[in-house]
Specification:
Blueprint lengths: L1 E5 L16 H18 L4 E3 L8 H13 L5 E8 L6 E5 L6 H11 L5 E6 L4 H5 L3 E9 L3 H9 L1 H16 L18 E5 L3 E5 L9 E6 L3 E10 L2 E6 L4 E3 L5 E5 L1
Parallel strand pairs: 1-2, 1-3, 3-6, 4-5
Antiparallel strand pairs: 4-6, 7-10, 7-13, 8-9, 10-11, 11-12
Helix pairs in contact: 1-6, 3-6
Bound molecules: zinc ion.
Zinc ion (ZN) binds next to loops.
């Protein structure tokens, strides 16, 4: 089951950003489209949308208690960005590169938006407080050309793009109907971590001094190049960092 929150209230405290479009109106349209695609694929949905609240804090705590009232595989909060940028981005706890979150960005970007990637949303209340894994999707910007492009596409395509990313991981059995991502992203090479934790290096080297962080099981990264360092294969990631390419630790695939 996936919890879906159409971000913000319908009016008053907690109302969303306003630009060419109103965020609160379109989070609901996208959430409805997403729900339709998920349910058509056999994925159950729990609605976690709150239309009115006395304050922003009351709004947030209502959303979180709805999300936490049930065991969820994902809590997904739909938003639109504001402030003059371009493109789609997704926030996860500590910026973990869950494959489904990476695919949400990629599928929306394939519709013509810039891909700003999966970022750390640890400071966001709904990301911190929900028990389920959570992602907050900023579909695009309400106050730039993004909004016009979104209006031309329609919310249905966005819902379809998000569902196509979530369905393969949400349904324990085969989904009734798989969702095809709209637009057709070009194939890319990805690497998925299959052990609990793995080191990341800031140079093509296995030396301890090049270790600059760790990644976790189920996180996925775009591979730019594969080299051999010593006698072991190593991937250079889109971020410019390096990770082992050994099949004992990671799975490498095209999608
Ligand atoms: Zn928002």
């Amino acid at each position: 089951m996936i919890g879906i929150n159409a971000g913000h209230t319908k009016s008053g405290a907690g109302f969303g950003a306003v630009g060419i479009i109103k965020e609160s109106e379109h989070t609901r349209k996208v959430a409805d489209a997403l729900k339709r695609y998920l349910e058509a694929s056999g994925v159950q949905v729990k609605e976690c949308t709150v239309d009115a609240a006395e304050s922003q804090n009351a709004y947030l705590s209502k959303v979180v208690s709805m999300a936490n009232s049930q065991e969820l595989e994902w809590f997904v909060s739909i938003h639109f960005n504001a402030g003059g940028g371009r493109g789609v981005e997704v926030y996860t706890y500590q910026g973990r590169q869950y494959e489904d979150a990476v695919m949400v960005c990629r599928n929306i970007a394939a519709l013509g938006f810039e891909n700003r990637g999966v970022k750390a949303g640890t400071g966001l209340y709904v990301i911190r407080k929900t028990k389920a894994r959570s992602m907050l999707i900023e579909v695009c910007f309400v106050d730039t050309q993004d909004a016009n492009e979104y209006l031309a596409l329609g919310e249905d395509k966005i819902g379809q793009a998000i569902a196509a990313a979530l369905v393969p991981y949400a349904a324990p059995a085969d989904p009734v109907v798989p969702v095809q991502p709209p637009g057709q992203p070009e194939k890319q090479k990805f690497v998925r971590v299959i052990v609990p934790e793995l080191n990341v290096h800031n140079a093509p080297s296995w030396a301890a001094k090049t270790i600059c962080g760790t990644v976790r099981i189920r996180e996925v990264f775009t591979v730019k190049e594969t080299l051999t360092v010593g006698s072991t294969p190593m991937h250079r990631l889109e971020s410019g960092l390096y990770i082992t390419a050994h099949p004992k630790y990671v799975e490498t695939y095209e999608k």
